[in-house]
């Protein structure tokens, strides 16, 4: 009959297909993104704690000045937070946007991936606004960390920062600075989704403009991209939200983001499925929806065209499409009087955008 070695070899060969079939079900899947390093995490915690300590000291001494917006306070500022991993292609357009604007109305902060060599020559307005930055990767929690870093830096830097607008290198303004400032800080009618805000002709509520969607395609797959029970018990599925990563947060909500430790422990877990994992689109809507749903508009002020999306990227506008008609169309909103920003534009759109900047974009 058969020798023992032959039987063993034959049995092993027969078992290989079974092992191949069962392995994915027995062994844990391998994450597709690297975890955030302990040193980067420690750097961030130290930064966040400094921002929290300073904010708490201001709250104790004069809470109305630092945490409550008032149309009677002309020194309130908008913090423009640029998150980039390339050159700031549209910095000349933003230079025009800020031109002749008093410096006591805005601040600029730039988080640039340190692995990228910024080659475009920047004006003094942008050149000295870079903050200490870490590597960022698409569809990974590093984008959450970078955004929190920008928020914490802006909180620390200037207690007059009242709104925090997150933008990318592909974002462009749709209006002048005066229009943008009035819309966020002064106009009692800008948020048309809240009729109570203009009841007596002044702004009664200041909300964060952040998209929060509770019903979206593949939401369950996004929720389980780290594992079926990875988000539990802190974040049950019914509390999981999705939305654009580009927002305009109030100072109060910026502090909520910087203070958070509980949800971050869940969202920093690497994903097993890249095609469903966009942490930056999940973390902020979920956190603020759980913390203060009534304090958020649930819509963003950055217009994005998701028609014909490719590999998770929105529609990208190219030079032949840039026109006054496009700008007017991009401004149109069902929730506010207008969108304030738009994306996504290719770098070579700069020239046609500059041609219509003064006559269209900044002519409100």
TrEMBL record:
UniProt keyword list: Glycoprotein, Glycosyltransferase, Membrane, Signal, Transferase
Location of this chain's protein in the cell: Membrane
Organism taxonomic ancestry: Eukaryota, Viridiplantae, Streptophyta, Embryophyta, Tracheophyta
Annotated PANTHER family: CORE-2/I-BRANCHING BETA-1,6-N-ACETYLGLUCOSAMINYLTRANSFERASE FAMILY PROTEIN-RELATED (PTHR31042), CORE-2_I-BRANCHING BETA-1,6-N-ACETYLGLUCOSAMINYLTRANSFERASE FAMILY PROTEIN (PTHR31042:SF140)
Keyword Transferase: yes
Protein's UniProt name: Core-2/I-branching beta-1,6-N-acetylglucosaminyltransferase family protein
Signal sequence, renumbered to the chain: 1-28
Lipid bilayer topology: Single-pass type II membrane protein
Family annotation (Pfam families): Branch
Presence of keyword Protein transport: no
GO terms for cellular component: membrane
Principal localisation: membrane
GO molecular function: glycosyltransferase activity
InterPro entries on file: BC10-like, Glyco_trans_14
């Amino acid at each position: 009959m058969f020798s023992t070695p032959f039987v063993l070899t034959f049995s092993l060969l027969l078992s290989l297909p079974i092992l191949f079939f069962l392995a994915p079900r027995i062994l844990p899947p391998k994450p597709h993104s690297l975890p955030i390093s302990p040193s980067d995490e420690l750097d961030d915690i130290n930064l966040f704690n400094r921002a929290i300590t300073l904010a708490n000291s201001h709250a104790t001494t004069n809470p109305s000045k630092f945490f409550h917006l008032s149309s009677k306070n002309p020194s309130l500022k908008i913090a423009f937070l640029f998150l980039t991993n390339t050159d700031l292609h549209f910095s000349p357009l933003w230079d025009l946007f800020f031109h002749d604007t008093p410096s006591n109305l805005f601040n600029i902060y730039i988080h640039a991936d340190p692995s990228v060599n910024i080659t475009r020559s920047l004006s003094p307005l942008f050149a000295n606004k870079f903050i200490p930055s870490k590597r960022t990767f698409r569809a990974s929690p590093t984008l959450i960390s970078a955004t929190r870093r920008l928020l914490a830096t802006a909180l620390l830097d200037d207690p007059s920062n009242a709104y925090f607008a997150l933008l990318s290198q592909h974002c462009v303004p749709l209006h002048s600075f005066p229009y943008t400032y009035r819309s966020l800080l002064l106009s009692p009618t800008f948020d048309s989704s809240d009729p109570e805000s203009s009841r007596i002709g002044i702004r009664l509520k200041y909300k964060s403009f952040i998209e929060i969607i509770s019903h979206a395609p593949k939401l369950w797959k996004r929720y389980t991209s780290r594992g079926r029970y990875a988000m539990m018990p802190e974040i049950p599925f019914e509390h999981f939200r999705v939305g654009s990563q580009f927002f305009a947060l109030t100072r109060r909500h910026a502090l909520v983001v910087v203070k958070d430790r509980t949800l971050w422990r869940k969202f920093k877990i690497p994903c097993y499925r890249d095609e469903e994992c966009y942490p930056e689109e999940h973390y902020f809507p979920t956190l603020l929806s759980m913390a203060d749903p009534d304090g958020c508009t649930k819509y963003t002020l950055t217009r994005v065209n998701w028609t014909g999306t490719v590999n998770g990227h929105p529609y990208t506008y190219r030079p032949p499409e840039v026109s006054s008609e496009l700008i007017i169309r991009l401004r149109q909103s069902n929730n506010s009087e207008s969108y304030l920003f738009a994306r996504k534009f290719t770098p070579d759109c700069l020239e046609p955008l500059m041609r219509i900047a003064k006559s269209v974009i900044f002519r409100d």
